[in-house]
Amino acid sequence: MVPPEQDRLVYNIRLSSVGPGRVTGTDVVHELSGLDLAMKLHYLKGVYFFSSQVVEGLTIARMKEIMFFSLNDYYITSGRIKRSESGRPYIKCNDCGVRFVEGLCDKTIDEWLEMGDDSLHNLLVYHRAIGPELSFSPSVYLQVTWFKCGGISVGMSWAHILGDAFSASDFINSWGQYMAGLKLNGPLTLSESVAKIEKPDDPTQLAKEPLSAKQVNPVGDLWVTANNCKMETFSFFLSKLQLLTLHVKICGEDGGKKISPFESVCAVIWQCIARVKEAYEPQIVTVCRKDPYHDTNVPSNSQIISAVKANFSVTEADLNKLAMLLAEDQGLDERNKIEAAVEKENGVTDYIMYGTNLTFVNLEDVGLYELELKGHKPMFAYYSIQGVGDEGAVLFLPGPPSTESDGKERLVTITLPEDQLLKLKSELKRSGLLLATELE
């Protein structure tokens, strides 16, 4: 939540709707998989900042005009949620559109970023949860905020039921490609729904609940999850030197080829959070990665979701041992189990995934800086997740591209219960991940 005194930082909010430039057709529906429905209480938020030189001459009217074309490809995002007679949600592709939002800010982009308050990014991303009237709730909001310096931010709120962060990034990057003339408005092609994941051959697996998702109390038609405590998000950068130093610390000078920067950083954060929680250290964590077979043409929840269990004390563990556990070949892919669990009740039960366990999300390959306006990339971009459960989530993102860092800088975004964050920052400082200037 943003404090009331900061609400006025972004003002003159205006809303409109933008739909596909062509009629999709009658009775076109998008069937939602069990994995899609398991994500319905989560939302992705992204913010992209562009300097005044990049957007000079660019108008809201032009942005909307281009969006008519891009939504022809992503007509599913312009649909509305309906329920079948059994109560299972699906998307009616009725071209109702995405919600387009305009706002003004009296600060410059540099002044905004210097405030260093992650909660302020919520002012740049207009967000409303789906419901309570499902058929009137957009799944996507796009907000353009004009700053005093002439630059803009593009904020996106994306209902996770549509697809994972990689699908959300594909969606907004496609808009940029149309803006640059790299895509042309071709014939309308109806996308097929992504095939549902097959249930396990072993019937006993159907009875086992997944470790990485849990059923929650019914929420009805207002798709918001209830936390037991107040959640807060903060982020920090890791330089190329910090990442190299950490890799040597964990793997030694010559070893560790199987351990990536993502796994090294998450191993340290896992141990730091275990120290904060003391007797309740998280021994099971969830790891999310991009599916190598991800389809850029159809939004889907295809990311790999793995459960990783430590049968030893995380607080006292060797960091190399924790990092190896987080490696790609060590976790148990739980997509089948999540799918089967949701399908047991024909998709009418409510689940959460992020924050069921401490959840690590590798978004290095999300294409965060592939959104281009007039041939220029964002000066800074940021993603977070709304609806994280009490165990928290960690996002590992690329940093801004620059010649100095060779694109090797990383951004870490952590969402945890508010009362754990101050202690965690102290632990991260002791570990060398968080610099003293970032702790203030």
TrEMBL record:
<protein>
    <submittedName>
        <fullName>Protein ECERIFERUM 26</fullName>
    </submittedName>
</protein>
<dbReference type="InterPro" id="IPR050317">
    <property type="entry name" value="Plant_Fungal_Acyltransferase"/>
</dbReference>
<dbReference type="Pfam" id="PF02458">
    <property type="entry name" value="Transferase"/>
</dbReference>
<comment type="similarity">
    <text>Belongs to the plant acyltransferase family.</text>
</comment>
<dbReference type="InterPro" id="IPR023213">
    <property type="entry name" value="CAT-like_dom_sf"/>
</dbReference>
